[in-house]
Inverse folding.
């Protein structure tokens, strides 16, 4: 659904905004033929949805992705609860924004506790923002980031993202002045705030990047539970998103904002003075 939405985005003249390639990486244990050479490609941005437990990114993949960003390419890197996606720790810069259970833990020890208590075998980080199929209201942090702008929404800012029973943990690396937390969520179980998104501005170190707390903000099952889910998913889904056209629009507008911002533009105007119909290769 994400792929189809991005590929269906048009500018005012009906010209497609994005050319999208959606794929699974090849079997772990060897460099992926696309990721390990991504810095030599014509792609403008890479969206990584990490669901591995340590073997998702080969060292050659990480090296090429790092070169890709240093050359001006842009990245979205997202994962899920506990240790899912832990191989992104090996990815410099934006990988350092992600915290896991057994490696690169959250600095605040009081956060190393179970938040989602519905699924006992899933340990921290596992922030409970709501059921799959429902939505959460987010809080904008600091000056509103372009990623969160929405001229059609009340106050001109995005309010909703898809929810998930166990989101991962992200934060801005302390030694990276280009990065900051731009949005937080609130646990439906403990009432605790947690970071949802960390934006990395373009800098001498590379192009823009985004660290997101969970890939479930973009997953078919979260956008529409009728799309189905893997057999190991045991939580009952909600139907809040299906009953809220405003939340559906907000979630998709965020995706559009990401694609444009990672390309160096804002939803309101082209930040670099390029034609708005210039196609983004992602």
């Amino acid at each position: 659904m994400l792929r189809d939405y991005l590929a269906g985005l048009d500018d005012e003249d009906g010209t497609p905004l994005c050319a999208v390639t959606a794929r699974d990486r090849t079997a772990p244990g060897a460099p992926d033929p696309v990721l390990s050479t991504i810095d030599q490609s014509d792609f403008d941005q890479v969206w990584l949805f990490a669901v591995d437990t340590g073997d998702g990114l080969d060292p050659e993949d990480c090296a090429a992705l790092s070169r890709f960003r240093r050359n001006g390419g842009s990245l979205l890197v997202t994962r899920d609860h506990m240790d899912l996606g832990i191989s992104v720790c090996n990815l410099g810069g934006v990988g350092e924004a992600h915290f896991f259970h057994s490696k690169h833990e959250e600095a605040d020890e009081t956060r190393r506790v179970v938040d989602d208590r519905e699924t006992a075998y899933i340990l921290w980080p596992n922030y409970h923002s709501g059921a799959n199929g429902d939505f959460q209201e987010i809080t904008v942090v600091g000056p509103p980031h372009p990623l969160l702008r929405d001229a059609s929404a009340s106050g001109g800012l995005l309010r909703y993202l898809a929810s998930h029973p166990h989101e991962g943990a992200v934060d801005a690396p302390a030694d990276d002045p280009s990065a900051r937390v731009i949005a937080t969520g609130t646990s439906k179980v403990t009432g605790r705030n947690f970071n949802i998104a960390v934006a990395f501005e373009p800098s001498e170190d590379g192009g823009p990047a985004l660290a997101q707390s969970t890939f479930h903000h973009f997953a078919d099952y979260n956008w529409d539970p009728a799309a189905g889910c893997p057999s190991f998913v045991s939580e009952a889904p909600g139907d809040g998103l299906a009953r809220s056209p405003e939340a559906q629009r907000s979630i998709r507008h965020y995706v559009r904002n990401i694609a444009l911002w990672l390309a160096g533009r804002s939803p309101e105007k082209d930040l670099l003075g390029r034609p708005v119909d210039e196609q983004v290769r992602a």
About this structure: Confidence is low (pLDDT under 50) at residues 270-277. The first helix runs from residue 2 to 7. The radius of gyration is 18 Å. The CA atoms of residues 82 and 125 lie 5 Å apart.
